[in-house]
Amino acid sequence: MSDDLCLLSAVELRGRIARKEVSPVEITRAVLARAERLQPELNCFITLCGDAAMAQAKAAERQITAGEPLGLLHGIPFTVKDIVNTKGVRTTFGAVPYRDNVPDNDAVAVARLRAQGGILIGKTTTPEFGSKCLTDSPLFGRTRNAWSAERSSGGSSGGAAVAVASGIAPLAVATDGGGSTRIPAACNGVVGIKQSNGVIPHSQVQDAFGNQTYVTPTTRTVADTALMMQAMAGEDPSDPWSIGVPVPDYLGLAAPRGDLRGRRVLFCVSPPGRPVTSDVAAAFKSSLDRLASLGAELEEFSGDGFDIEPIWRAINHTVWRTRFEKLAADHPNDLSATFLKLALAAQVSGVDYQRAMFERTVLFRRVQSLFARGDLLAMPTLTRSALPIDQDLFGTIEIDGRSFDSVRPHWFPWTMLFNMTGHPAVSIPAGFGRDGLPIGLHLVGRFRADAELLRVAALFEAASDLLGRWPT
User: Which of 26, 103, 326, 451 has the fewest beta carbons under 10 Å from its own?
Assistant: First the structure.
């Protein structure tokens, strides 16, 4: 019975709690037991909050018994990536110098989940400061893919995606600065959205105005993503881009209603020179066929001009060097060689940084021009399935037997683009490769049309029949 509870969606758990068919105590106990059992193999948590979670569950049960009003997430377990602040629960950023750091406040997104009755069960793993697409750190080791111990979980929200994919908790708070939610979502066969800029406030980011990082939901179903967004969205004084952004009825609007007749989907497999595996190409073709069967018109667009990793790198590495230069000098022996190489990458001049910011505006307008022709964009999330567990970030990447010399632009050429433009982008399960590992479809919506993007994702999900498959 306990594992059965772990395999239910948050929406289903919410209904059962409201009908008093199951208690928050039963759910939390089951989820914690599964976490304890799977943690030695998966290594997706850095902290489990067992005692505190059970205390919250008992309080939630008393509120139900007393007939008090229930929040959206009353009694439902969730996890938080260990880069996002949690009051009274250590937040290490995956880095040895912060192993004992305990914040005084929750991030706004976390505070909102708690206010709606969600129960924090633990902090999930992240590479140091979420700096790469693989989840490992000197602080905790490697996080394994939910489907294969020989493969990486992706990153940087690898722990979040693995915890969700393996049935430990239905909801996870992740982050995404270049694909960090969508990459592990694709690797582990779950739903990972990077919402539009400003939809969910980011209260920790240091450059709020030039920000391209997001605090995000990761879930097993599109409906659960809508549930999280309903709880997390809404303006906050800490984030200028959130002010004045309305909160729609995500739960209602993101239901798989209607079809895609009258909607045009523009698609592209990859930018020139960025090949995909035959498995990914086949899954993408099947995904396009599924969208067409739902009524969508399909039109290919050119990937020319979208090989944008150098622009993303100039902006992001400038931010990292500014943030971490002193930390690296103070703790050279506590930080990984990979992180030090990233954090202290060649210094970008002020002129080159501003030129990259100009290019960011050009990219936004180029994407906007696509939306003048179509309603949605579609592309594969990744060029291949999950990388080997011992992948070197600065090593080669293999795609159908061919080796390429850089992981970032060759594995996730599409995800970084929409961090910079701010458009909503979601990775949803689209099938499996010959290696038995998940493949993701990347759908992109109009700026701040997040609810409509979720509706399309929900229609695709309902037509895909993939929700019944679980890692063994």
Answer: 326
